[in-house]
Amino acid sequence: MQKKSDFKYIFGPVISRRLGISLGIDIVPPKTCTMNCVYCEAGRTTLLTTKRKEFFPITEIKEEIENILSQKPKIDFLTFSGSGEPTLYLKLGELINWLKEKYPSQKICLLTNGTLIGYNGMPQELKNLDLIIPSLDASDENSFQKINRPVEELTHKKLISSIKNFRIQNKCQMWLELFVVPGVNDTDQSIANFAKIISEINPDKIQLNGLDRPGVEKWVKKPEKNILEKFVNALKDIAPVEIIVRQNIPDYKSSIELQMGNISNLLSKRPCTFEEIQKIFSLSDNELNQVIQELISLNEFEIEENQSGKFIKRKNH
């Protein structure tokens, strides 16, 4: 049986603030994306592109998924996310269709920046999704360029059209994520613009997010409660609004034997707090300290502390 530390495309299960226990499927090389967002927990974009490719053989990805699902892990969602923009993977639709056929009871979620989902037949390609969570972080072109820093041919108008086109053509659940960046997209005018745009998209839910894990740019800060409340008041009549906050992490014991490779594999995909590592891998305080020391000694990881806690993360080389 393939060991978890050998997996290239699967990470977790992880405790998600939004999706419960999520098994991540990562199908693009780090960090390949259509944007270079200032807050991204996966790090700075190294390949800025809109060109879709089969970056990895789909047979290898299927094999890993079959391997881990044969172990019957406790999960709420299979989630396409990770090192970049998942819709850049050319055979994403084929992979989703295969999952639904082979594992019909598993719910499938796509986390996406939304830039590609409405064009070139993608609403139909993604027909078997249970849930899509696109991001909308800007209410105008200026804030779009400052926050999302897209590839040259992408504009704010194209992003909005993409999300609207998908919503019209695909009837899966849509939760729209809005990342609040203090000092950039939280003015009264910006909030009013968001309300107009989101009412036209008509999502099933709106999720307000803010800085939690360390992002790319140090100047990005966590939004204050009163600012989030302004967003809630402006958006609550359009759709239910949920403020994404760090929850208490439930006790969850991995069914796979603890190895350092497992932890480093998870951290290569996303920063984690000390508490998350301890809970996910069922470590004692002494074991946690040993793991942290070992990771730091590898010179591939570093500790960063912000308003949300103390994280260990992969270094940006």
Write a brief caption for the model:
The chain has 10 helices and 13 strands. The chain is α/β, with parallel strands linked by helices and 317 residues long.
Structure, described:
With 317 residues, the chain is an alpha/beta fold. The chain has one domain: TIM Barrel (Alpha-Beta Barrel), CATH 3.20.20.70. The protein contains 10 helices and 13 strands. It has helices at residues 58-69, 92-102, 122-125, 141-147, 156-169, 188-201, 225-235, 260-269, 274-280, 285-297; strands at 10-16, 20-25, 32-33, 47-48, 77-80, 108-112, 131-134, 173-179, 205-209, 241-243, 272-273, 301-306, 309-314. Strands 1-2-5-6-7-8-9-10 form an 8-stranded mixed β-sheet. Strand 1 and strand 2 (20-25) form a beta hairpin. Helix 6 packs across helix 7. It starts with 9 loop residues before the first strand and ends with a strand. The model is unreliable at 1-5 and 247-258 (pLDDT under 50).
Instruction: Report mean pLDDT, rounded to a whole number.
Output: 87
Structural class: alpha/beta
Strand order of the largest sheet: 1-2-5-6-7-8-9-10
Helix-strand string: EEEEHEHEHEHHEHEHEHEHHEE
- Profile the largest sheet: 8 strands, mixed
CATH-wise, what's the superfamily?
Aldolase class I
Report the strand count.
13
The multimeric state of the shown protein is single chain
Distance between the termini: 33 Å
Based on Cα principal axes, name the global outline. globular
In the CATH scheme, the class would be Alpha Beta
Number of domains: 1
- Using the 3D structure, state the CATH architecture: Alpha-Beta Barrel
Strand content: 15-25%
Low-confidence parts: 1-5, 247-258
CATH topology: TIM Barrel
Q: Can you give the helix content as a percent range?
A: 25-40%
Tell me the Rg in angstroms: 19 Å
